Amino acid sequence: MNEPSSKWSNPWSFFAIAVGFSWLFLIPAILIGKEADTPPVAQLRYVAGVGPLIAAVLLIYLTGNKKERNDFWRRAIDFKRIGAKWYAVFFLLVPGLTGIGVLVDIISGGEGGHWATDAPSLSDPLALLSFALFVLIFGPVPEELGWRGYALDRLQAKWSALISSLLLGSIWALWHVPLFFIEGTYQHGLGIFSLSFWLLLIGMIPQSIIMTWVYNNNRRSTLSAVLIHFMINFVGELFDLTRLAELYYILSWIVAAVVVILFWGPKSLKREA
To answer: What global pTM score does this model have?
Structure first.
């Protein structure tokens, strides 16, 4: 790499650009004071959402060589990097942990949760598919091309997979904070500084560990991170959990992360051949 690459091709440059770009649009959206889906707040939110992607593309093209740029895009679309058994992890883990949270709450005397009132019905598969595509495009894709597609490798070049996951998860959580102040967003509905506020942010730490585990065990597949991120968002949008069910759900993520650390090891979260 040339000198500019060694100076700027690092996770801290990425985090500064990603968070700075996104907050540059989210702060005006907060100050406008309108609902999340009304102009211009909606447009500001959508632009803010591509902050991690903008940061990653900017840095990879300014500091990377052709091989690095090709690798960046290939890891986002190459299904062959992903082992067949991992699709079960992508599509069953999040519903399973959600189910545990609901079940424990019901056993404890709670209501568990219910199908979100603003989510498409199962009886309307086209609407559900359209909703799924929206959730995929406005969240997991632009975020993961940055968080896991760019930053994670650079963190792991200096620290263990566990430490890298903790750092990335913390900044990932911080990046979301302005959304809590925009009325009409999912985050705002949880309540600012409420129990759900803290649960959502804390929950991103074990989720980050699980996503690093998935990423490292699938040959650095950004697509694998996109898929599990999608399931977290999609299932979360479909079901409204009670506060206790939500707590049990986050505790389930913590248990899952601990199991991964114990069995795969904190250094790489990967079984070495």
So the answer is: 0.94
